[in-house]
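User: Hello, can you help with two protein structures?

Assistant: Certainly.
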Amino acid sequence: MQLCDATVRLGGSVGHTVEKVNLTPAEIAVLRRIHGTDAVLNIYPRRSDKRSQNGERTRLEGLYGAEIVAALFPGEMSKLPTTLKDIGLAPSPTPQIPPIELDQMDEPNDDDLKAMGLDGGDGLEGAVPTQAAA
């Protein structure tokens, strides 16, 4: 099964979110049923594993209750989804963070350091020297 990391909005609330790791597509479907169809976002597939259908069904029933699992995946022998595609989702695009060119970075000056609550010196005032290990 595909394992994903995602953000879950509890009760669909933007102000109450949790980061979840190693979610299976079946668990994402359960969370969407509980919290709302748009409550699971920023879904990033990380890896796959070879967990069994029965083992995953039992795990989900223990976490979320047999009733909700049966409502989503009726029938004791029904197959659980194993990929995001199986539940009609695509992975979130990987956020692109532009690289910072080293020549674009400025060294902080004394005013910057003071604004950050630092003394503007080398930060070693009052430091006690330690003896190096032999």
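That covers the first. Now for the second protein you mentioned:
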Amino acid sequence: MCYNSPPSANFSESAVYLQVGTEDERELIRRCLDGDAAAFEPLVERYHRPLFRVAARMLGDREEARDVTQTAFLKAYVALATCDGERRFFSWIYRIVVNECLNTLRGRRSMQPVPLDPLINDQLQPAAAVQDTAEAAERHVRIRGALLQLPADQRDVIVMRHFAELSYGEIAAELGIPEKTVKSRLFSARQRLCQLLAGERI
């Protein structure tokens, strides 16, 4: 039986924290591999929100983020047998989502500005307000472009901390590294981002 799509949900813009399920993830995966497609649903329900948040903030487009998140779950379901049982499911599917986002960004013919809030009408807003919003959108585009240039280990901690809003402890657990290493990578990644955004070359 094939998995069709994640359940629909209203995604919140508030901070997202990973939930610890009462049923062991390895058992859910084992049941799914044994043919129980319904066992995949708790994994979707547990992780679709933080993964959508990552995709939405990387892409700047909620519809694209929904497509990417759905695609990631579908790919994860199909390739579930390759999931490393020693790692958390989130770590594995998170990597799929980030790769899908990067592919989407690379596939764009040009880096388009982040869509403005549909509630903003440039015919009703003061010119200064519209300009501020446009400048913010341009900054977001530059940040996403700079992210593409970061090494994978630095990009991971930036995305997990600032896009998924995970704690240092959660990031350390997901990546299997000490918290002090997370903080060190974040420091280096932020420095590199600042240099890239300032147009510096190393």
